[in-house]
Amino acid sequence: MIRYKSKIGYAILAFTILVFCTTIGLTIGQGSPINDLPSMSGILILASAFIIYLFLNIEYIIVERKLKIKCGFIYTKALNIDMIKSITKTNSIISAPVASLDRIELLYDDNGKFDSIIISPTDKVNSAKKLM
User: Fold this and answer.
1) In this predicted model, which residue has the larger pLDDT, 21 or 68?
2) Which of 18, 21, 30, 79 is the most exposed place for a label (fewest CB within 10 A)?
3) Distance (Å, rounded) from C-alpha 41 to C-alpha 34?
């Protein structure tokens, strides 16, 4: 079994934190009652903690010619490595189980229907070699 963690893109993390801080700032700037601030801050802190949990728990596991993609407890996908037709570098911002913009796209044949999934392992070169 080989396990790769997802590479963490600090630009994505910084953007997420900026959105949450802007939300709090706009709430204060619009004159919302100060009593609302603790509850709103609590919700945003919980949401931030959940996002950080997901960022830190994205992993790609290769076991017995299968690639298992896990994103916390939210998303799990198993893919037969023999179905992979190509691996290409991509900077696509399409939604994917990754925490970075430094990505690779796996094109695979799922019973005659071509599909793709984007991953971002910390060691892209070695993981790509293991998938070929």
Assistant:
1) 68
2) 30
3) 11
- Taking residue 37's Cβ as centre, other Cβ atoms within 10 Å add up to 13
Digit-coded pLDDT (tens) for 55-110: 889 999 999 889 999 998 888 989 888 899 999 888 877 778 787 888 889 998 87
DSSP assignments along the chain, one per residue: -EEEEBPB-HHHHHHHHHHHHHHHHHHHHTT--TTHHHHHHHHHHHHHHHHHHHHHTEEEEEETTEEEEEETTTEEEEEEGGGEEEEEEE---S--S-BSS-EEEEEEEETTEEEEEEE-BSSHHHHHHHH-
- Tokens linked to 2: 């080989």
For domain 1-132, the question of CATH label 2.30.29 is answered with yes
* Residue 121 burial (10 A CB sphere; 0-12, 13-18, 19+): buried
